[in-house]
What we know:
By secondary structure, this protein is mostly helical. About 80% of the residues lie in helices and about 0% in strands. The radius of gyration is 40 Å and the shape is elongated. The model is unreliable at about 1-20 (pLDDT under 50).
Amino acid sequence: MGWVNVVAIAAVAASPLPPAGARTAVELDALATLRYRSAQTETVAARIADAQLLAMRARIDGGDKQLARTRGQLAALRANARSDKARIATLEKQAGALVADLTALKNGFTEELARRDAQYARDIAILQTAGEQLLATPDGVRALALYNAGGAGAFEAADAVLAAVEAARDKAREAAARQQLAADRRSRAQLALDARDKGLTTTKVAIERWVAVVEADPSTHWDWMELAALYLDAGQFDRAQEAAGKAQATATNDRDRSVALLRIGEAALARGDVQTAATSYDEAMRLDRVRLAQNPGDGLAQRDLTDTLARSGKLKLARGDLTGASGDFEQMLKIRRGLAERNPDNPSIQRDLGVALDTLGDLRIQQRNIDGATALFDESLALARLLASKAPQSLEAQRDLSISLSKIAQIRIARNDIPGAIALMEEALAINRRLAATDATATAKHDAAYTLNALGLLRLAIKDLDGAAKAVTEMLDIARRQAAANPANPEAQRDLSVALERAGDVELARGDGAAAAKLLEEGVALRRAQLKTAPVSAPLQRQIALLLIKLASARHPADDAGAFAALDEALTIGRTLAKADAKSAEPQRVILGALWSLAQFGAPGHGWNQVVAQLEAMRTAGQSVPSDAGLLDMARGQAAASGK
Length: 644
């Protein structure tokens, strides 16, 4: 029986196999070889073993040997760069023809066995399906080729490939399951976050939801960012920094890394770790500048850089570096002004410009540059009125207008126009009252309390004690309700502390030291409780020290021992803070305030010479403000008069 006759026999055999479809010659040969060399084929062929099958098998085995020789010749020729290309082409053609003939012969052989043995037909169809599945992927093709090569180690080699594929797919399935679980939990977490913002649930509940998300799938950067922000809101600064670190670790691009670094810095600063905050902000700024250098026209990269500049400037400002802060804020304003000019109809970008104007304006006030601050605040107010008029239902636009009004009020105060400042703050209060009535969020309540605080201070300045008391009473009522509703929220507790301090100021102005002391003691207790969650927080420690100085004024002279104890503690806090951050002017002013009161109240071991020394040291270190010159003259006069 020749080659053609064998093919003819195969063509008329009943085939249980599926159609080949668009498979390549190599794939068809791999499937035919898998069936032909299978254990089932060996067993059934040995049992039947008639002359026809034996002849077919001899032809196939002979053809396989011929194909192996041809492929060996091809390999040798291809390895030699000087080989005859025509000879290579001829052998390639011969090898292709042999593969096609052998595929047909092997199919014919196995199909003949299937025609004669029904069980074999079922078994070989199952093997065919396995082969088809292997050919669906490059790894499967490789495994099938290794297995069909036969010989020692063929199975182990093929099995290793398939085991790796199986492990990879198991891992992918597990990852997919985790991602789906996280997606389901993320929906609940987002709903809880929105409800928290509306005052319908607590930050604690929102944290629990987001913890469940990252437990299901810890690989998503923005999930960690949400959790870090919630921890910050809850005053859990260590956990906030840890979550922000996870956000940085899961970031997949420089932008995500930059925003994570900003959150790390924010958490570190809340913990009082100024150095970590500065390092994080510097690295975030480097990444932002790299992105911008790669694509100078990228608006998002420009906005990101301005956010980083804002944080960097505020940190420098807190450390008394007004020049460095000014440089950062000026860069921020320049970039945001350019963005606003190119995007006149984008309210978000226009709002960013307003924030930049206000931020630099605040700094100008600290620099005693009232004219510069006025120009910036006037531009910001005009922009805020425009945006509020375009979006009268926008809570954000109305809030921005209220903030701008309060900024202009600062200018009125700097120019000693207290009635003008009061008028502006009354307008801002009217806006904030409307917002608080329609918006259940803590922010709206905080804004109303902030405005009432400012009004209370202004009315105290003009000796309008009844007006001050009215404003402060409303403020204290709001603050107590918000603190009770949000016991874990540090901002709500801080607002209550400020309200208690302001109420204490009113009682001091009325001459009721006992009432003032009671209010201020409650404020100190609140700050101490917050300090337990952030023991290295410099801002919290400074605020406690300032409250203690005011508390001493309330206790003196009825309780001089209590007053002196409060001042000694404030002095210790100030010196500790100054040692931790020698460049910052704020701890030095705490020390000055404590020393001044100790000298003024005649505390044993303290005198005006210490006040003079402190003021002179601050002047030498560049930590003074212009009004300190008058204080120094006064302290020197007191020292000369008292001899100490």
